[in-house]
Design brief:
Helix content is 87%, strand content 0%. The chain has 126 residues and is mostly helical.
Length: 126
């Protein structure tokens, strides 16, 4: 019972690490698009077709930037949920640990051995 709780806790920790990695990637992408927008706005275009192309690139980069911001919001919500689940999980593990330890102290080893011999499966003759 404890092992299941610990593995669930480990899964939560692993998910937290993945969200942190995703957040780092999104931050680098967001910085890249901000720099790209700044570079495109700095570019001085005299030809109208070139100007339209640059404006489209700026609009596309701004759209990607807005998508990244939305993803960042969702990741922050997921991280907060994972933190809460991990905190509640550690409280549950501590409660379960106390129950198991008290059960092991109160248990009579002879009774458990007798139960094991009584419930042993009977092998069929070959």
């Amino acid at each position: 019972m404890i092992w299941f709780r610990q593995s669930k806790k480990a899964k939560l920790r692993k998910a937290l690490k993945r969200t942190e990695e995703m957040e780092k990637k999104l931050v680098t992408q967001r910085d890249f698009f901000k720099l790209r927008i700044a570079a495109l706005k700095f570019r001085d275009c005299t030809i109208s077709t070139e100007r339209k192309k640059v404006e489209r690139e700026i609009a596309g980069a701004e759209y990607r930037l807005s998508l990244i911001d939305k993803q960042m919001k969702y990741i922050l919500i997921v991280r907060e949920t994972l933190h809460n689940a991990l905190a509640s999980q550690s409280k549950e593990v501590n409660k379960e640990l106390v129950k198991v330890v008290s059960f092991d102290i109160d248990r009579d080893p002879l009774k458990s051995e007798r139960k094991a011999t009584l419930h042993r499966p009977v092998s069929s003759p070959a």
